[in-house]
Specification:
98 residues; alpha+beta; 5-stranded antiparallel β-sheet; 1 helix; 5 strands
Amino acid sequence: MEGNALAQFVPLILIFAIMYFLLIRPQQKKLKEHQKMVDALRRGDMVVTQGGLIGKVVKVKESNEVEVELAEGVKVRVVQSTIANVLSKTEPAKAAND
């Protein structure tokens, strides 16, 4: 009787294990990669936001914000985690007072 009850739980355990390896684990890996990309942002990088805006990082602020220049003279502040992709990594731009 106890062997039969254990046999009923084996498929449930297998389904959970399959879901973990196919869904949960890859999502966690993707989140870690995104966080690593966001932490590596620096001035001069061309980025795409989750809203689809493309611009150049002008300033990385300590309060989890990034200032992105969309066009000449048009700057917006975005939360770092909303950066979807880095199009090109460049050398940091020189400061204006250098």
